[in-house]
Amino acid sequence: MADVVLNRDEIDPEDNEELFYAPAVQILSEDLYPRKLEIVREYIQNASDALDDWMKISEFIPTDRSEPQIRVSIQGKSLLIFDNGIGMAEEDIPKLKRVAYSEKKIGEEAGYKGIGRLAGIAVADKLKITTTTYGDPKLHYFEFRAAEMRQYISEQKRQGKNEPASPVIQRHTRTWWKDIDPAEHCTLVEIHNIKDSCDELLDPDVLMEYIGDIGPVDFAPDFEHGSLISDNLRIMVPDYSPKPIYLARDGKQVRVYKPFTKEMKVAPPEFIDIRDPDNAAEVLAYCWYTSNADEFLGKMRATGKIFSVAGEKVAERRRFAGLVYKLFGFSIGDRYLPERTLWTTARARAPWFTGEIHIVDKNVQPTTSRSDFIENAARTKLYTQAQRISLVLNSKAQTISDNRNVFTDAERIRKKLEGVKTQLDNKQIDRSDIKVIKAELEKSFRKLRKRDSTDKEIGNFQKEVRRLAESIKDDLNDPKKLKQGKSVSDLVKDLDMSTKARKVFQIVMEALQQHYSEDKDEYHVVADKIHKALKDKYD
């Protein structure tokens, strides 16, 4: 007998079987965020969207001159996230109870899956949301008693019972309101009484670094290259909109910035735009990058090696090594994700750089965990085209390495040559040392000729060192520049040789001089050894 398939209109309207049960809420909340700091990202993401929505209409409300901002604060064992964005109206409050419900549009806002607003129930006793929107005379309150719900669900499971999710959520949530000035607009999220196992959510230092690294924040004003990078991002990334985020610490509101400081020694940033192969006018992504640098020859130059910052442990020093994907200003995945998805060769060069890859094509969508992008045609195109970034950076790394080696070799040779020049100027070099010095000079010439630099200033420095070597080579052939050693007659006199011995010694030295007539430097080496041996034996 063939299977009977009912069309949607033919399904029994009385069939109201519950398909979503309470344990699923607990599973979603507890397993969705392996790293609990990601919960903070969810609420900052919602706050950022709210600020964007407010700024779209704020120009029509000239009486409101408040700075759009997000404020994060710690109060005892609770974490609070405030924003003065669009807020929520009365009809929006019941929707807070809905799991995976969102009216946000894909590709237009950072959050759109409707899960993040309840993220706090995974780590706290209660989730409290207080909100109002412009023109609403009510301040609305929403409370989710998460600890009670978790305990209830666990007890039900022990008894082998499964209750539908909706009534369980209804019993453990409540809403109320009070009157307020209708000109107000804001949202305050309180993650109340956080578990001891999630205490990193209450560490201001951890929060400051985490939000700065993953959030839509600006560069610090004193970061030398911040303005240049921001200007380029505003041009190339239409939704680039860094938000003022403040963290309350030590009784003060401290603004959070990206983790790039004036103390960091970095090279001037460079940029790569990734274009759509089917339409060169369309930008898929825009990348900026930089690397560690040192100042030499009058400016900061890239030094290569793994990008590092101050820190006691290797992991701390290398925590910003590598690029990171950004979507709506938020990090997607960690700094290993671009390495895994873009580098096919020379992956060791990837962490030589730090920077960001801002996704412009909003058909590229993040997974729920924000650890990667959803597998679709847009992601495939992005990963394929963005491999150009790895090619550029690998080539750049090789250039950095070559230039650094050229400079290091030239600088080392220069220091040696300056030592020889000082000895020559003070007539401290014996004739017997000339051959060794010339051999070292020739080795230096070979090393300086071995490779050239693509950096103009380093190339000029290399030429200066070559000229210094040539000058010293000429000076070594000038007897006036050398130390005046003892002659045959001086040695005869010092050793008080007899007449016969003196004649024999002179004959021997003349014979040696004639033998080494084509290699005077070697004659002085041999003569010096003979003089020294006689002095040691008879003096």
User: How far apart are the first and last residues' alpha carbons, in Å?
Assistant: 124 Å
Envelope shape: elongated
Pick out the low-confidence regions: 1-11, 104-114
Strand fraction:
15-25%
Helix and strand succession?
HHEEEEHHEEHHEEEEEEHEEHEHHHHHHH
Oligomeric form of this entry? single chain
Q: How much helical structure, as a percent, in the residues?
A: 25-40%
Total count of strands:
15
Structural class: alpha+beta
Biggest sheet details:
8 strands, mixed
Our Rg estimate from Cα atoms comes to 37 Å
State the strand order across the main sheet: 5-4-3-6-2-1-7-8
Produce a short descriptive summary.
The chain has 539 residues and is α+β, with helices and mostly antiparallel strands. 39% of the residues lie in helices and 18% in strands.
